[in-house]
Amino acid sequence: MTGWNLAIYPDMSVKGTREFYNIYAILEVRAVGKGEVQVRGVDAGLFLAMSPKGKLYGEPNELKENTVWVETLSGAFYNYLSKKHAHIGWYLGIKKSGKGKKGHKTEYGQRAVQFLPRHPYPIG
After folding, report:
1. Cα–Cα dist 8/56, whole Å
2. How far apart are CA 114 and CA 84, in angstroms?
């Protein structure tokens, strides 16, 4: 909702990009359980994860629990709650500056935690 496209870079950093077709912003979302997903940066080959301090980063090991997100739909927007940190309500978020928002600074309903799915190719 902040106008940024989420990108996972090979150096394990996660941040927003304004480039709609940035190679690092091509993400694969796959189901791993009922209402649970993993997000993988296709080019970087890393999974979106949240550290114990709430920082977003790219994780090479898909089996780590901090790579699983609870996906919910709120109106037209998707929210991603960290499964590992769900008990304290930490969401995936991107600030207005494009930097990842730390989990402890997020809460349901903030613009920073609302995401729109995007199509891999232009429609029309």
Report:
1. 10
2. 19
For 9, other C-beta atoms within 10 Å of its C-beta total 19
Tens digit of pLDDT per residue, the chain (124 long)?
778 999 999 999 999 999 988 999 999 999 999 999 999 999 999 999 999 999 999 999 999 999 999 999 998 999 999 999 999 999 999 999 999 999 999 999 999 999 988 766 555 5
Structural domains present in the chain: 5-113 (2.80.10.50)
